[in-house]
Amino acid sequence: MATETDHGPGEAVAARIERRWATLSIVIVALLVGMAAVIGIHRATMPQARVETADPKTLHLSGEFIESNLGSAVEPDGSVTVRAIGQQYSFTPQCIVVPAETPITIRATSADVVHGFLIEGTNINTMLVPGYVSDLPVRFSAPGEHVMPCQEFCGIGHQGMWGKVKVVDRTAFLNMTAAKRRLTCAD
Amino acid sequence: MSDRPLFSPRNPWFSISVGVTAGIAVLSAIVGLVWLPLVQPNVKFSGLWDAICSAAGVPRAAVRDASLKPEFKTSGVVMTPQMLAGADQVSIGRGATLAQRCAICHGPQGVSDANSPNLAGQFAAVTYKELNDFKSGARASVVMVPFAAAMSDRDMKDVAAYYAYLPRVPSNNLDVGRPAPAIVVTGAPMRNIPPCGSCHGDIDNKAGSPWLGGQSAVYIKAQLEAFASGTRRNDISEQMRNIARQMTAEEIDQAAHFYEAQP
Amino acid sequence: MLTNKRLILAHFWLAFIVFGLALVLGAWQMFVRSPLNTWHFNPEFYYRSVTAHGSAMGYVFPTLIAMGFGYAITEASLEKPLVGRRWAWVGFFLVAIGAVVAMIPVSLGRASVLYTFYPPMIGNPFYYIGVVMVVVGSWIWVALMSINFTIWKRENPGKPVPLAMFANVAGSYLWAWTAVGAALEILFQILPVALGLRSTIDAGLARVFFSWTLHAIVYFWLIPTYIAYYTIFPRAIGGRIYSDAMARIAFILFVVVAMPIGVHHLFADPQVGAGFKFMHSVFTGLVALPTLLTVFTICASAEIASRLCGGRGAFGWIRALPWSNPIMLATALSLVMLGFGGAGGLINMSYQLNTSVHNTQWVTGHFHLIFGGAIVIMYFAIAYDLWPHLTGRASEGFGLMRTQLWLWFIGMIVTTFPWHYVGILGMPRRMAFYDYANPVISPEAFSVVMSAIGGFILLISGTLFLLVLIRGQFSTKGEAGAYRFAIALHMPERIPVALNSFGLWLALMVGLTVVNYGFPIAQLMALSETNVPAVYVGASR
């Protein structure tokens, strides 16, 4: 145990190695944080930009979440807005239909408790908190079907809260909008 | 070094740790609150201040742009779990008087064999909501609409309170030993059918969902079919249509007969 | 010098009994939700069980460990009896009674809201009152740690506080401030509604308050583990701590940056602005720093021990480590699980990667690996190490201990790795059952069975652990000698005031929390229209 008396050079070496490791750790952390910032800037994948409120008690009476306004709507600029609500224990619309290769805005909220909104096989994943509106820009690359479970415990029927998403070809979608202004694939 | 007072800018531990912490906080605030929001391509801000406020999460009401109005009447009831909790004796007494005219179909004690719903012991919010929907036209019924049309808001509350106060009476088909079908116990998760009891009271109660035990199977079946086909649409935001339209005819039948046999 | 052995034993025994019961529930949950079970059952039982499992494992078990271990550290490291023994017993009984008060409504199905509360769902008020009692009991411990620390410093001016005690007090302060978030949520939001005084609640604000507690609570759980890494492990394998100062800095970093990062749990929530989410994400990155420092110091300390015993070569020293020693084994397995869990944590902390795993089974896998794995395995090690000193009986059965530790490690890996995998597939968490016959879910069935098998292995390991403890109570009497903590390679005679006191660090902790949480909380509190009707769970039938 030479270390007891060896306060001079040994300690200095130990401190130097330790400082190097600390510096490396700081660099690793800085790199990770920087990565998040850079992706946020270049890929525009940041959390939703605004906090918006909506009264869950009166969603069905007025405003954008009334029953007849739920579903997918084509905007003047060619993009699509999907409006949906979560409630114990289903999403309305129960089946969402959207076009592929199109910028889509999902606007959704909850009518009662906290729900989750997850579309499997995609990175679309957000929370529905009663009182607040979730708004997220998404894009589906290819036609197909996805399941859309609620991912947050919302009561005893939570495990039965599974919706669906159908991604269809863009022209097929536009043909459907000729007959109806708000599209869903429920029924 | 260790003899210097800690809370002094001359102590390097103090100045470095406070400086570094404050520096990281300020830098991350500038990046998060100013820089990142300004470079988001899909959000339009009216200016720098708007961008900062939005990133800080200053709330605002959702924009009320033109929404598509319904072609049919939907329920106008504002449903909350606290609705009509704790009715007083006056309300129940008044409701008892008013309920005499309901007795022909619903029975003098809120129970009948006429395949009309048994109301004894029904949650007050349920009776109140359905009366409201009959009155507003959100729910159709040749028999009920004229009755409801003549009722004031207070009348509906009192009648609802009276029926909630009456004890539940089991139907003649009571059979508690009857095994529960899968559609009732577990539903069908991937078809978005939760267990019936998670809303209808046998496990938990969702505001506005009726107690089903002892109801006539004919009535339950008719309502499930009406929800499934969309001829009944007074369930707020499709909460029951979503489930009923996923059920097979056989499942509807099983559920209806199971609940008829329950207390 | 442990004078309050009964006090410490009471904490450990209650903690491990609660742990054993919650472990049985956990294994049952793994079974019923897997394809091994026909899912014809009332889902409410599942959520009831999850609530009990989470509350016991998250609130009661680690709190009792931190308290009991804290009292042991105070007496052993300061080498004087604990000041405030009566108050310590008051704290213990508050936790014990609180746990029972909370579990009664839960077991009756009157509070199946899960341990994260989820307002606007509201359960029976006694559930929340019980949780508050547990927290208040632990705050007595915080006060006692602070008092003992202060008294010792006054009696020993200028002397460095022993590292174990310094870290222990850091953990207690961290917990005191961490618990404030959930305490505000329960006392000012949930309880008034549960008691029927109010009928509405702002669920968004409640989630922000809870996030303040939810992340830093993990560091509260972690601190006993880190104390064991730094002050038990090197001594147990015959080595020394590589650096005393760096250890202190690691604990200080936890105190300062553990709190203002909780919003990373709310990345996907609509009620917090993107700017604050970014700020919290930056500080979440920083909290990896003390762990990186710790891993270095612990590995270096192990190398010192090995070289003292004749280990040589760039990697040969690893073989020369005393692997038959349970503490050595536990620490190594813990570090492996910490490594995997930490890597997963880095994924969760970035907003972009988080979206693909948020609220999936990935997250369940992640925190079971970190808490149930890396942290709890060191709780076992702490108990094994302390037991002879507490019972006054010889420590027997190293082989059984090693088997138990290996089983825990294997069980945890077998449980959590498939969990992570199905999470990537998108399997949502907190569901009572899944329809494995459906083609969308059937690819996940095999992994869920694996997880369930892992759960059974964990149950066996937990049973073995309790057996070892019981055996330790009845083995042959033997004086274990004074309980010692590891000392540093270069033991400092004097250290800077900053590394021997908490004033500055507590000021930074509170200041940073105010900066990162003040505005989001204030603006949500000012909002009245987002108060939504409470949804009472299990109330009316």
UniProtKB/TrEMBL annotation, chain A:
<dbReference type="InterPro" id="IPR008972">
    <property type="entry name" value="Cupredoxin"/>
</dbReference>
<dbReference type="InterPro" id="IPR001505">
    <property type="entry name" value="Copper_CuA"/>
</dbReference>
<keyword id="KW-1133">Transmembrane helix</keyword>
<dbReference type="InterPro" id="IPR051403">
    <property type="entry name" value="NosZ/Cyto_c_oxidase_sub2"/>
</dbReference>
<dbReference type="InterPro" id="IPR002429">
    <property type="entry name" value="CcO_II-like_C"/>
</dbReference>
<keyword id="KW-0472">Membrane</keyword>
<dbReference type="GO" id="GO:0004129">
    <property type="term" value="F:cytochrome-c oxidase activity"/>
</dbReference>
<dbReference type="Pfam" id="PF00116">
    <property type="entry name" value="COX2"/>
</dbReference>
<keyword id="KW-0812">Transmembrane</keyword>
<dbReference type="GO" id="GO:0016020">
    <property type="term" value="C:membrane"/>
</dbReference>
<protein>
    <submittedName>
        <fullName>Cytochrome C oxidase subunit II</fullName>
    </submittedName>
</protein>
<feature type="transmembrane region" description="Helical">
    <location>
        <begin position="20"/>
        <end position="41"/>
    </location>
</feature>
<dbReference type="GO" id="GO:0030313">
    <property type="term" value="C:cell envelope"/>
</dbReference>
<dbReference type="GO" id="GO:0005507">
    <property type="term" value="F:copper ion binding"/>
</dbReference>
<feature type="domain" description="Cytochrome oxidase subunit II copper A binding">
    <location>
        <begin position="77"/>
        <end position="179"/>
    </location>
</feature>
UniProtKB/TrEMBL annotation, chain B:
<keyword id="KW-0408">Iron</keyword>
<keyword id="KW-0479">Metal-binding</keyword>
<dbReference type="GO" id="GO:0020037">
    <property type="term" value="F:heme binding"/>
</dbReference>
<dbReference type="Pfam" id="PF00034">
    <property type="entry name" value="Cytochrom_C"/>
</dbReference>
<feature type="domain" description="Cytochrome c">
    <location>
        <begin position="90"/>
        <end position="167"/>
    </location>
</feature>
<protein>
    <submittedName>
        <fullName>Cytochrome C</fullName>
    </submittedName>
</protein>
<feature type="transmembrane region" description="Helical">
    <location>
        <begin position="12"/>
        <end position="36"/>
    </location>
</feature>
<feature type="domain" description="Cytochrome c">
    <location>
        <begin position="182"/>
        <end position="263"/>
    </location>
</feature>
<keyword id="KW-0813">Transport</keyword>
<dbReference type="GO" id="GO:0046872">
    <property type="term" value="F:metal ion binding"/>
</dbReference>
<keyword id="KW-1133">Transmembrane helix</keyword>
<dbReference type="InterPro" id="IPR050597">
    <property type="entry name" value="Cytochrome_c_Oxidase_Subunit"/>
</dbReference>
<keyword id="KW-0472">Membrane</keyword>
<keyword id="KW-0249">Electron transport</keyword>
<dbReference type="GO" id="GO:0009055">
    <property type="term" value="F:electron transfer activity"/>
</dbReference>
From TrEMBL, chain C:
<feature type="transmembrane region" description="Helical">
    <location>
        <begin position="497"/>
        <end position="519"/>
    </location>
</feature>
<dbReference type="InterPro" id="IPR023616">
    <property type="entry name" value="Cyt_c_oxase-like_su1_dom"/>
</dbReference>
<keyword id="KW-1133">Transmembrane helix</keyword>
<dbReference type="GO" id="GO:0016020">
    <property type="term" value="C:membrane"/>
</dbReference>
<feature type="transmembrane region" description="Helical">
    <location>
        <begin position="367"/>
        <end position="384"/>
    </location>
</feature>
<feature type="transmembrane region" description="Helical">
    <location>
        <begin position="126"/>
        <end position="152"/>
    </location>
</feature>
<keyword id="KW-0472">Membrane</keyword>
<keyword id="KW-0249">Electron transport</keyword>
<dbReference type="GO" id="GO:0004129">
    <property type="term" value="F:cytochrome-c oxidase activity"/>
</dbReference>
<feature type="transmembrane region" description="Helical">
    <location>
        <begin position="245"/>
        <end position="267"/>
    </location>
</feature>
<feature type="transmembrane region" description="Helical">
    <location>
        <begin position="52"/>
        <end position="74"/>
    </location>
</feature>
<keyword id="KW-0813">Transport</keyword>
<feature type="domain" description="Cytochrome oxidase subunit I profile">
    <location>
        <begin position="1"/>
        <end position="510"/>
    </location>
</feature>
<feature type="transmembrane region" description="Helical">
    <location>
        <begin position="327"/>
        <end position="347"/>
    </location>
</feature>
<keyword id="KW-0679">Respiratory chain</keyword>
